[in-house]
Amino acid sequence: MEYELPTKYEQFLVDNRANVNKYLNIVLWFFVATGPAIAAGVHAGVFKDIRYSTCVGISVVVILLSGIHLLMLKTIPKSTWTCLFALTALDVLIVYMACSHVSIYLTWFLVPLLSILFCDRSIYFYAMILNYILMVSATWAISPYEAALQSEYDSSVAFFADRIGGFTIESLIMFASGYIIGKLTTRYFKKLFSQYQVISEQEKSVTEKMKLLDSMAEIYDNVNLIDFVNNTEMSLRDVEQKKHGIDMSAQTHTLMAQQISNQVMPDQVDAFMTFTNIKTIRSRLSHKKLISADFIDVVSGWFRAQYITVDSTLDGIPNVVIYTKRNVDDEKRREENLIRISMTDEMTRLYNRRCYDEDLKEIAKNGLSEDFVIFSVDVNGLKKVNDTKGHAAGDELIKGAADCLALSVGNQGKVYRTGGDEFMAIVHTLNPEGLRGGISGKAGEWHGVYSDEISLSIGYAVHKDKPEASLEELERIADEDMYSEKAKYYKEKGIDRRR
Fold this sequence. Notes:
single chain, 499 residues, alpha+beta, Beta-Lactamase, Alpha-Beta Plaits, 3 domains, 6-stranded antiparallel sheet, disordered N terminus
């Protein structure tokens, strides 16, 4: 039975070449020891017709071939050429040993045997054909020498014919056996990988289904099916999925809604009960796919309650509705974080101009308290620092001013960076002059890397002093006070700002 070659099997063959080549390279390096081993035999008188130069030659040839194969292993480990070179190198070594009268006949069949490991028919054919050609050539080359040593042969041709006849029979047996072994091995691996691919696809399908079910389970903490035709409710998350009757004349909430209400934040219970009132759900869902609202669970945080229309009348009035509850605490936190980022100045981490404007709108809507004070602050000499010391030094002054303001104002109010070196602060205090002194004191203690000091012009306007003034007028008064402080600073320093 033939099997379609899977992609994974093709990749296996490619990876297998690299692995087999790695071990063949180890075998080649192992043969370096052949020279010294034969030399030891020559010294002991075992090999009488072998010279020491032959032993050295064997080791040199093996080192050269092993080195070339190692280089190919590092550059093209998965190439067929690397495989063929390793097998050819082993054949060359055997020919060299045979011609040097180191006849170890079993090694002639080592190369075809090793080639089976590649699971590649073309490599096996190459190994068998090359091996047989070299076997015949080497046997012919050593025939005169071997015939002279053995009296039963009349000539070198007789020796060659006798020896090559045996080799040929052995080669045929080896070829047939190796081919069958390779074919069975290849077929087995193809079948194995084909089965593996089927199993992998099945596992993938099951895994995807499990992930889908898990994701559904994670999305909805509670799923309740409400049937307004039969006046029943049923939890789809329960194993039994038991239906419970709803008394529409006396009941305003489903059993699930009643259970969930026990975990809703106390200040949101009324809103939750209004949203989940089953007497008004049908009218609120009329001609709609869903309605939703967010509430806070005292244990798990924010959750989203939804009513989804499953079936409705021709007039768009829902007959069957699914109620779901899903935790959205992380989503709410991300939303709050994005809002916080949009309201924050990136450099100083103070609130930004957008937040300042939004807060003024809220204050104008709710009215000003008696202790309301608005501060306007500007960094003195920033342009000179930028021009002489660079913008890194200027940024350092801006950050320093932000730190001084934030530390001084603390929990009395909020500080905003509204421009390059311009800051505003909305504060609740009955001692604004003391706070101005505190900010100046903090600025006096500040030291930076690029600058040793920082100077701030600070102005403010108090609602108590100007009860009829609007927020815009108070802001203008604070700016005028700040510019007055700035003029004093430059006058004391003897700096003509017009230059």
